[in-house]
Amino acid sequence: MALLRHASTVALLTLTSRVLGFARDAGVAALFGTGLVAEASVAGLAVPQIARRLLGEGALNAALLPTLARAEDAPARRALAGAVVAVFALAGLLIAGLLFLFMPAVVSVLAPGFAGDGPRAAGAVLAGRLTVICLPLALLAGVFAAFANAAGRFARPAMAPAAANVAVIALLVLLWLSGAHTISASAALIWLAAGVVAGALTQVVLNAAALPRDFVRLTLAPANLKAALPLLAGSATPLLAAALPQLRFLIAAAAASGLGGGVAALFYATRLVELPLGLVGASAGAVLLPALAHGRGTAEEPGFGPTALGAGGLIAALALSLPAALGLAVLAHPIVVVLFQRGAFDPQASELTATALTLLALTLPAQALEKVLIAIAFACGLPRLVTLASLAALPLGALAGFFSVGALGMAGPALGVLVSSVVALAGLGIGLGRRRLLVLGKPVRRQLLRLSLAALGMAGAVMLARLGCEGLLTQGGLAAAGALTGLVALGGAVYAGLALALGGIELTALRAGLRR
């Protein structure tokens, strides 16, 4: 019960962070739309934003916790922890220095389409150089979060990303009060960069405050530093797995950088997709996965290896992600209009963002299922499988995105993300299947099929209902928001009813799992 309680707390706080992050991005959209400031900030702040988010939300746990647990005694653990802090901080400073020096080259890789646009490229370089300090700060935040988790403290580290987003939102409010539309692009980028740095500092402080007293003894003893170096190298694989969605976006953004407003539009669409993806990751791992794993899907299926998760995890992920994906795809344009279209975010920006969202939404099931398979692979000691699947997927997605952007426009980069997600999922599924660590019997396949039919039925019902609400949706304002809320509620009710009627979800199994 304590484990489930902690997991539920982490899930709730992680979702709070995602919602606040969306509010932050909606504020940037209202202030700057998809114009120069928005595009330059997305490209220039991409690396520190990804680092702060990943490292502040427990991505280093897999690399650090097992070694800390094997420490001989408390003094040895304190010395090792101090050496880890020193090594990771120094590595972060080194990377930050290199990024500062080579930021123009980094921007040219992240946004090759900026090459012919001096102001966008210069703005991205400025924002990137102002925020390189976030790299060592993010590494320290990740290390402190792992240490706090090792000590059995979960709430404050999970709260840190949400608090960081609050700090950024506060800076955005100050920017708005100072007259965002009247200041220069460079001044606006300085404000946005200050918000990112403030968020990174907030995470470091909160995660450090979560540590028990005397948990860390800072040391530069050669023996301790030597022992900490393998931990730095070992963090590469879990970080790569955790960063996959963001790396796919970076590649897609590079493909979209030649389209006016494309980088910012893709960013906003990605943030909308990440909201349900965060719900899938948190809920499947903390609440729904244990409940569904107790049901028929896994109880009657042997062959899931030591994880005992396989089918239950896949069912939980698909049950949440598939209806969200189809709902986002069907309602892409009204969702973007209601959530973003205000201030500098005009109808053209809405059209660009909705085009990207329609196709990006279809990546949700693949990415959700991928999260489950990655967890199984790590639990079974197969980090190399995760690395190979990831490295194979990224270049194939890049080829699809870059080669299709000319013909498909905004849909091209989104197609690249879809290709990358499907390739990675297939690689993981084949690798685990060959090792008999993932076996899907007939009961599981039937349940997955029933969930898919329920989601398709929901999508059809929402499409028909949308035709009747088109007049309200085009009015904007409260009328459109009310109509959209009604469509979302209808979709949820239809999906739940069909899933229960078809046997995709069994109330008895769900209740039994929740009572465990």
What is the general shape?
globular
- Total DSSP helices: 23
Pairing-aware structural class of the strands and helices? mainly alpha
**Total beta strand runs:** 0
Beta-strand proportion: under 5%
Molecular structure report:
The protein is mainly α. Helices cover 82% and strands 0% of the residues. The chain is built from 23 helices and no strands. Helix 1 runs parallel beside helix 9, helix 4 packs across helix 8 and helix 15 runs antiparallel to helix 18.
What's the layout of helices and strands?
Elements: H1 2-32, H2 36-44, H3 46-56, H4 61-69, H5 74-101, H6 103-110, H7 118-130, H8 134-150, H9 155-177, H10 185-209, H11 222-234, H12 236-256, H13 262-293, H14 296-299, H15 310-330, H16 332-340, H17 347-360, H18 364-379, H19 383-408, H20 411-434, H21 442-475, H22 477-502, H23 507-515
